[in-house]
Amino acid sequence: MSDFVIVGAGVIGMMLARELMQAGATVSLVDRSACAQEATWAGGGIVSPLYPWRYSDPVTQLATWSQSSYLHLSQDLIEETGCDPELRQKGMYMVDVEDEQDALSWAAQFNRPMSKVGASHLYAREANFCRGYQSALWMPEVCSIRNPRLGKSLRASLEKSPRVTLYEHHDVHHLLLDNDKVHGVRTAQGDINGGKTIITAGAWSAELLKPLDINLPVEPVKGQMMIFKTPVGTVNRVILMAGRYVIPRNDGRVLVGSTLEREGFDKHTTQGAYQSLHQTAIQIIPALAKCEVEHHWAGLRPGSPEGIPFIGDVPGVAGLAVNAGQYRNGLVLAPASTRMHADMLLGREPVVNPAAYQLEGRI
């Protein structure tokens, strides 16, 4: 029997397991598939909310703490595992922003590096960006991370620890409830018991709680994306325009995303989304018209009201907690979401005030 059973081995579940393990706790990490195969694998990996000034303070607080921690986390994972999650601190351009003054005011208020730059700044660094723009907003400290490789390195870190037991390909049938207290989960392969059970199953989190008559307002929101195989240097930085973005990888590949579709748990790709994403990519970087589309895929984000995650104990059910609902910002918010939750679980002073994320009064 472990100290904690974590259900869901995406970036939230793995980072939480790592935080608890590093503090000396034992953890059973359970997933119906392999680690980091759902939203963690499918996302883009921009370590910033899109248009960050449009989010509420609770999201900004988690994002700010997380952004500064990724540099250390990335280096730690490389040293621990030899697997490079490919963190790139190259900055982000935002073009054709309607509420530009709001953005600059937000940056001044929260001390975030952001400036309005001219065409020479933009085109000197992104020569393949579409022509005709005279200015852009520039955030030089924004990073991107290659999320599949982040998942791989986090898994390797956990696998090396004797305090963590991975239960991949273990479909959870239901929570084990005895005298109004959860003490683990039942899977097809048997029961997994622990002192406290934490649901970190992303878009599927609400489904696990429904049998307890708990209505967690987290729903699946499909996002379709594609990636181009391109020469290195075709795109060098994240570029955001008209709500969509291109993201370069170290090997030259360029990712474009994404759609927002509320279609339940359907993860099928569509020809309409393919055409829309392809058109977006060429509008931002015309040179991509000559490049091969290597892959087109879809993933499910855990949508929540205002994108504010649910982090903390489930009211009225002893031994049960949740960390879910980061919506489009799972990778962005993961370090702060999991560090704060680990602090709460272990009786430490939380790095971020947890009041805004509690389930009490929100479900």
Topology diagram in text:
Elements: E1 2-7, H1 11-22, E2 27-30, H2 39-42, H3 57-81, E3 92-95, H4 100-109, E4 115-118, H5 119-125, E5 135-139, H6 147-159, E6 164-167, E7 172-178, E8 181-187, E9 190-199, H7 205-209, E10 219-229, E11 238-241, E12 244-248, E13 254-257, H8 271-284, E14 292-303, E15 310-313, E16 320-324, H9 330-346
Parallel strand pairs: 1-2, 1-9, 2-6, 3-11, 9-16
Antiparallel strand pairs: 3-5, 4-5, 7-8, 8-9, 10-13, 10-14, 11-12, 12-13, 15-16
Helix pairs in contact: 1-6, 1-9, 3-6, 3-9
Spell out the key features of this protein.
eight-stranded mixed β-sheet; 29% helix; oxidoreductase activity; Gly_oxidase_ThiO; 363 residues; alpha/beta; 2 domains; FAD/NAD(P)-binding domain; D-Amino Acid Oxidase, Chain A, domain 2; 16 strands
Number of helices: 9
Shape: globular
The percent of residues in helical segments reads: 25-40%
Which fold does the CATH topology of the largest domain refer to? FAD/NAD(P)-binding domain
**DSSP summary, beta strand count:** 16
The major β-sheet equals:
8 strands, mixed
CATH architecture of the largest domain: 3-Layer(bba) Sandwich
Q: How many separate domains?
A: 2
